[in-house]
Amino acid sequence: MLCSLDVQSLKSRLEMLAHQIDGRIGICVACTGHTVSLNGNQRFSLRSVMKIAIAVAVLDRVDHDSLWLDEPMIVRKADLSVGHQPLANLIGKNGYHTTLQDLLFRMIVDSDNAATDLLFARLGGPANVQSTLNQKRIASFRIDKNDASLSRARKKLLAVPKLTTIQPHLWP
């Protein structure tokens, strides 16, 4: 057995922890045929986890020769997003000349929102990213907004009816 899981004890402990948090929390633990979830029937915003979905779509396009890692990209101030974006410090008068690979690196390693939104746009938007995930049978993600839209909505404390989400049933 790879792990032992006392389902009832874990569920009780998770519920106790969740009651101590002022907010909504969702947790799912899977271990060798056992699954314990708290609010497992609800959707939650992916936030930076969406960067993994974008990376999957980018690398799938690279594998199928419709994008190239050495593809030149120019980042301009007008391309900047919201939130964390260290890329902004590199943009000069003529922009920042880089590659698709560099943006991919910055998106994953630096969690750069500008790089995320630039790659998202280069892929053609949410429908194309979602299509790639669907083709790969990654059905637990729903991508329908870019990072800037989610961040702006969060900053303004607006209700966003359709969020980029991960479904609770990640494991069969």
What keyword list fits this structure?
14% strand; alpha+beta; two-stranded antiparallel sheet; disordered C terminus; 7 strands; 172 residues
Explain how this protein is built:
The chain has 172 residues and is α+β, with helices and mostly antiparallel strands. The chain is built from 6 helices and 7 strands. A hairpin with a 2-residue loop joins strand 1 (27-31) and strand 2 (34-38). Helix 2 crosses helix 5 (126-135) and helix 3 packs across helix 4.
Total strands: 7
Strand content: 5-15%
- The overall pLDDT average reads 81
Q: What's the domain count?
A: 2
Describe the strand arrangement of the main beta sheet, using strand numbers.
3-7-6
Largest sheet: 3 strands, antiparallel
SS field, number of helical segments: 6
Low-confidence stretches: 157-172
Our measurement of the CA-to-CA distance between the termini, rounded to an integer number of angstroms, reads 18 Å
The SSE order reads HEEEHEEHHHEHE
User: Pairing-aware structural class of the strands and helices?
Assistant: alpha+beta
Percent helix among the residues? 25-40%
Provide the gyration radius in Å.
19 Å
What's the overall geometry? elongated
